[in-house]
Write a structure and sequence with these properties.
The protein has three helices and 16 strands. It is an alpha+beta fold. The chain has one domain.
């Protein structure tokens, strides 16, 4: 029979208790992560044009259909790199203004098709809100990564439930929305704060690590109940946008299309799409991911950034 000295027993017990406490603290730290950990920015209209540096790279306008561009003012048909976008000004802002510079270093570009109203005029764009979140419940916030530099994405609705496309009415200055979500745009009440026809669309967050692909989206997929698939193992921050058109008239409106495009793509119920090119200043997106998403904080529009 082996006799264990009392001092050794005490050390063993204390070590076991410390291990339990550390595990409990780690579990507690994991549990306190807010489900909406992340942040958002309000981006004003930067440019309107008939060009598309993802679908028609290097092709001067007019080409394709009419787009509304938000974010970097340097967006152009021949934009090829983040440095091209960083050469302009950024229209994306943290409302609270708690970081310097006030744009937070976001020179990314977001664009959507313009909306043709029932009287034949164009709606134009009022604002895009860009939300960067932890994402799917199956994603561990501690391992979420920033997008690779220069990432490009083009997502289309085409009845894809994972894009979570919905139309509603909203305000511009934090008033929220009217809470009525529909498949297609409808008329908003201009006598209320919720007078802007608005669409929401969600980008995928699982990637191969590549910044682009032939169809501009197969390098990215949506997470499932098990997280990111082995084919797309990188767990990036999830981006979704709310695109606010400068009109309260949504009923019978159609998305912009060009003459050779399938007319069905003009249907806002199935044809809405959005493009994104990442151009955050180096290191900035990483710092926000670390502070807000890995830190488990909903930094909102900058007022809770550390």
């Amino acid at each position: 029979m082996v006799v264990i000295p009392n001092r050794v027993r005490v050390v063993v017990v204390v070590s076991a208790l410390l291990a339990v406490m550390i595990a409990a603290q780690a579990a507690s730290a994991h549990d306190v992560h807010e489900p909406n950990s992340g942040w958002f920015q309000r981006c004003s209209l930067a440019k309107t044009g008939y060009f598309d540096p993802i679908v028609f790279p290097g092709t001067p306008e007019p080409v394709g259909h009419r787009h509304l561009f938000f974010g970097s003012t340097a967006i152009s048909y021949d934009t090829t790199s983040p440095s091209d976008l960083q050469a302009g000004e950024a229209t994306c802002r943290f409302e609270a203004g708690t970081v310097e510079p006030p744009d937070g270093g976001n020179f990314s570009s977001y664009w959507i098709p313009d909306l043709k109203l029932r009287d034949g005029t164009w709606a134009s764009g009022a604002q895009v809100n860009a939300y960067y979140r932890k994402g799917a419940s199956s994603i561990d916030p501690h391992v979420v990564k920033p997008f690779p530099e220069g990432l490009r994405m083009l997502i289309r609705d085409r009845n894809n439930r994972q894009t979570q496309v919905s139309w509603f009415c909203s305000g511009l200055n934090g008033e929220g929305n009217n809470g009525i979500y529909r498949e297609r745009p409808y008329d908003c009440d201009p006598t209320t704060p919720f007078k802007y026809v608005t669409a929401r669309i969600t980008f995928p967050q699982c990637g191969t690590g590549a910044t682009d692909s032939e169809d501009h989206i197969s390098h990215m997929v949506y997470a499932d109940d098990s997280g990111c698939p082995s084919s797309h193992p990188h767990e990036f921050v999830r981006l979704f946008i709310t695109a606010k058109y400068d009109t309260s008239f949504g009923a019978e409106s159609q998305l912009a299309t060009h003459e050779y495009e399938d007319p069905a793509h003009a249907d806002p119920g199935t044809g809405f799409h959005a493009d994104y090119v990442e151009a955050w200043q180096p290191g900035t997106l990483e710092s926000f991911v670390d502070a807000c998403i890995r830190g488990g904080i909903n930094c909102r529009d900058g007022d809770r950034l550390p």
